[in-house]
Amino acid sequence: GLSQYSSDPRTEWELSAYSTRDQVLEAMRNLRYKGGNTFTGLALTHVLEQNLKPEAGARLEAEKLVILLTDGKSQDDANLAAQMLKNLGIEIFAIGVKNADEAELKQVASEPLELTVYNVLDFPLLSSLVGRLTRVLCTRIKEKSNKENADIPVNTGPQLSPTDLKISAVTSKSMHLAWSPPLRPPKKYRIVYYPSKGGISKEVVLDGAVSSLQLSNLTSHTEYLVSVFPIYDAVVGDGLRGVTSTLPLSSPRSLRVSELSHNSMRLSWKAAQGATQYLVLCSAAPDRAED
Q1: Which SUPFAM superfamilies match (predicted)?
Q2: N or C: which end of the chain has fewer CB within 10 A?
Q3: With the C-alpha atoms ordered 147, 153, 156, 160, is the resulting torsion angle positive or negative?
Q4: CATH assignment of 163-246?
Q5: pTM above threshold 0.90
Q6: Does 2-148 carry CATH code 3.40.309.10?
């Protein structure tokens, strides 16, 4: 599977899209480069939420590998998102090109770093990594596949997935989330939220016994995407997703003009709830405009 990212990640194809090497190579040849910013944390969150799900072709019994290719320093917290993947047994290989931050690559990648971190000076030099990286990836898959892990469930389904996400008490800066827990209580919940039109992804991790959360310090008049994931020892259950918009900030009302003279006037209005200051702009009206 492959996703590109800038300020907004984009899935190019899912794990289940192609079944032969030639199909994947043809898709790669037709790939169009996506320019833009470097929100690596948001990209890793996208991979976890969207690309490593059963409905996207991820098999629970298969080993999960993520190869991150980047040519810059992340503009958000890549380490936090990477740690969440690694905690779930997902192995991350980090490949830097040109201006990539090697310290950040080492933070994001899985151990041992001598096998999972690569850095080259320019894109044509990536070809020099293919042979070694292929051998390392195949060896790691075999090693991990040979380990017994009887705790991995056969499927997630309703037993491991929360239901009925409710978003209430929405204000200009906050909202309340509540959901019904799955039949099998999770170890933790991971709640991810971010503006739908692009922005920094934020997350909260809760104890599995808790099934509600108050989100605060939000931006007013903004649509937010919210996801709730149950986390077990060896798997992430299906997530709940919701979308809602915060309210606009309250406005001053009932503007009145009085005490007019040749060079002055008095303005008064009903206060806006929560306002700490007011900005008053005044300019001469254009010709033929209302006085």
Answers
A1: Fibronectin type III (SSF49265), vWA-like (SSF53300)
A2: C
A3: negative
A4: 2.60.40.10
A5: no
A6: no
